Structure formats: C-alpha cells, structure tokens
Amino acid sequence: MARIPGEGLAKGLAVTMRHMLHKSETQQYPEVHPDLPARSRGVIALVEENCTVCMLCARECPDWCIYIDSHKETLPAPEGGRPRARNVLDRFAIDFSLCMYCGICIEVCPFDALFWSPEFEYAEYDIRDLLHEKDRLGEWAATVPPPPAHEVGAEPPKELSAGSRPAPARRTAPPAPVKGPAEGASVAQESAQDTAAQDTATQDTAPEAVGKAPQDTARGPAGPAAEPAKGAESRPRREPPRAMRDIRSIRPPGSLPKNAGSSQQKKDGPEGER
Fold first, then answer.
1. What tens digit of pLDDT does each residue of 233-267 get?
2. CA–CA distance from 124 to each of 97, 98, 121, 259 (Å)?
C-alpha cells in the first residue's frame, strides 16, 4: 500500500492538539501530597510496647535486614508468688537499603508490633543513613492509618464476640435430704444385714449350683434359694472363689485325663522293644 506523505506527522500533531485542550493533572509535589491507597507499603513502623523479642521477624526476613538486641530483667515477686524474668528490648533496627518490602515480618509478628505506614519521605543522600533505629520506627507508628470498617453483614471479630458472650450458668446439684440420727442409724443397720444375708445365701447355694447338670440349670431357678437377696439390684453380686474339688465336679466322670506317666510308659514301651 502506498503511504500518504506526512501521515505520521499528522498523527503526532493530532495527539498533541488533543492533550493541549485537556486540563493538566500534574500534582504540585511537595506542596500537594499524593492520595495513596490505604494498603500502600511506604515504611515499616514499630510499636515498642507490643514487642516481646520473640525474634520471629528477624528469623523470617529473607534479606536479614532486621537487627534486634535485648536483655533479661527479673520482675519482683508478688505476695505468695515467685519472681519472673522477661525480655527487654534494647535495639530494633531495620536497614531499608536491603529491605525489599515483602511484608513477611509484619505477617509473622504474633503480637501486632509491626505495621505498614504510608510514609515514603525518608530518602537520604548516603545509603548508610537508611539504617533506622527503634526511635525513628516508633515515630512512624503514629502515621499508621486505622483499619478499614467491616463490610455490611460481615461477622464481627472473634475477640468482640468472645468478650460479649454471656458466661455459662453453673449446674448446681439438688440438696441431699437431711436424715435424722435415728433414721440414718436404721438405714446403716439394714444395709449391713442385707449384705450379710446376701453373702450367706451365696455361700450356701454355690456347692449346689456346681453339682447340678446343665439341663437342670437351664430350667431356671426354683425354690426359695433362687430368690435374690435384698439390695441385690443396687450392688453387684460377687461369688466366692471355687475350691479345686468343686471345679473338678463340673466335669462328668471319666473326662479327666489319665496319668501322664502311664501313657508315656505305654507309648515308649513298644518303641523301646523295637
């Protein structure tokens, strides 16, 4: 296709004329500061009161640009207690010439001691002056914007919902009936008599139950001996240990094994003769 001479020049002049007719949007910095977004990463601010010297931010920093020094201090013991030791922060410095503004230190801080501040006017003529200590980091903490409001219909924070939750009511047991001395004594005597009667009935019926055949037992208990003693439903029934003669009487006659010595002699006899 043949090009028209001066086509590019005409397009350039058209763009220039179009921008000349529009109003300029130049911001007169530093007299007029720019409107930065709420989540802009300007500089890292420190709240010294929240720092517990856990060293998580320094260990997780991929650039190793955080320097922390501390010492231990013993607190006086309260009444009836023991003295406790705590870490006191001596130095907290960030070298912003190495920092890549990844925000990992702010995310891993478990005590909300580090925040993003929208301040960005901390340029220096010497790169060595970009190492800022905790005093300068604490000044930037005042410029941290408040957190945004929750969306309409969103769930409230767990801290607020847990604090406003009513305490669960304690379950109280009903008061026990108060018995007089005479009534309490009679109940104790009756329980002791019931226990003695149950033990006696168990000892009397144990040999008889052992000597019975299986078909007699399957018919069910009959007679006054089969009646449960008083208070048997409330406490478990324990039978006395059986003697060796009672255990042997359960097997039918002729089921006991023969003497092992005689069977061994009979077995070894023919083999020895061979």
1. 556 666 666 555 555 555 555 555 555 555 455 55
2. 10, 14, 9, 107
